[in-house]
Amino acid sequence: MEDKCKVIAIANQKGGVGKTTTAVNLGVALGFSGKRVLLIDTDPQGSLTKSCKIDNADADALDVTLSELMANEMTGEDKDYSLINKAIKQFENIDLIPANISLSGTETALFNCMSRESVLKRTIEPLKQKYDYILIDCMPSLGMMTINALVAADSVIIPCEPSFLSVKGLDLLLHSIAKVKRQINPNLKIDGVLMTMVDSRTVNAREITGALRDAMGNNINVFNIEIPRSVRATECPNVGESIFIHDPKGKVADAYAVLSKEVSGLERKAQVRSRPYGIR
Ligand code: ADP
Ligand code: MG
Fold first, then answer.
1. Ligand 1 midpoint to CA 63 (Å)
2. Neighbouring C-alpha atoms within 13 Å toward the C-beta of 19
3. Residue 279 falls within a domain, yes or no?
4. Residue 280 lies in a domain
């Protein structure tokens, strides 16, 4: 049987915690194991789009982006497949739907629209047959666009920096996730909290990571693999490359490769669990 497409939202309302970096590098790593991967930029800042240096074009000059696709969905007209195909760009071994500042207008438009929480879900529905993974890079807020991402998603990965404030901010995010799950998307799962930019030499980082693991306990998975801090990773958005091109032998590339195994392993475990009794 053909594997189902899994939609993963990469979310945290705090900025600068590694969401975009995780979307790009987890996506490329999943691509290496033969998975068909689509990244979706849902941040009007377009950091994902810019880090992927699409055709070297100015992100703000792109004519078809997520904003046009969602606007088309909101008007309730027939799906315009040619528009979807025009929006999809290539980056290394994966695909991407870009975003730019016009997406901030989309977020405002959502407020006056029917079923406003599920516009993104409906927008990406026809793409699910083409991909094994769709990774949604969220914007740093818990506004309507992030709610749309959580409604469209099967699961969430939460990148988190090992700082006191970052960990404290998780409460708010977990609350929003629980609310979406209760009211709109009962099957939404949390794949896990991913510690990013971890400087294992500092006692502080170790303490915070340890405290987080204790606090989350059995309720929420904290990925075993942690993403180390590295200067080479900081350079990636500027050169428009994934870490696998920019620093393939480095520790950050290794870590994202391991994460991709953990993520696809989660998938396999879920399939085994959902198999009806008696069938092997
Ligand atoms: P977010 O999408 O949550 O705002 P980003 O992925 O854009 O976060 O990361 C914020 C900044 O930190 C970027 O400049 C990025 O290059 C840098 N960064 C991300 N991951 C790492 C890492 N593992 N080591 C060093 N710098 C990183
Ligand atoms: Mg970002």
1. 27
2. 30
3. no
4. no
CATH code, domain carrying 173: 3.40.50.300
Pocket test residue of 17, 19, 21 for ligand 1, highest count of atoms within 8 A of CB: 21
d(CA 244, CA 258): 13
> Residue 144's domain spans which residues?
6-274
Per-residue pLDDT of the chain in tens (280 residues, 90 and over written 9): 455 999 999 999 999 999 999 999 999 999 999 999 999 999 999 999 999 987 656 766 788 999 999 999 998 777 777 899 999 999 999 999 999 999 999 999 998 888 999 999 999 999 999 999 999 999 999 999 999 999 999 999 999 998 877 787 898 999 999 999 999 999 999 999 999 999 877 777 788 888 888 877 778 999 999 999 999 999 999 999 999 999 999 999 999 999 999 999 887 776 665 554 444 3
Q: Is residue 146 part of a domain?
A: yes
Q: Are residues 86 and 64 in contact, defined by beta-carbon separation less than 8 angstroms?
A: yes
Token pair of 58, please?
A: 């100015």
Q: Whose CA is nearest to atom 20 of ligand 1?
A: 18
Q: Would you state the structure tokens that stand for residue 212, as one six-digit string?
A: 């987080």
Number of domains in the chain: 1
Structure tokens at 214: 């204790």
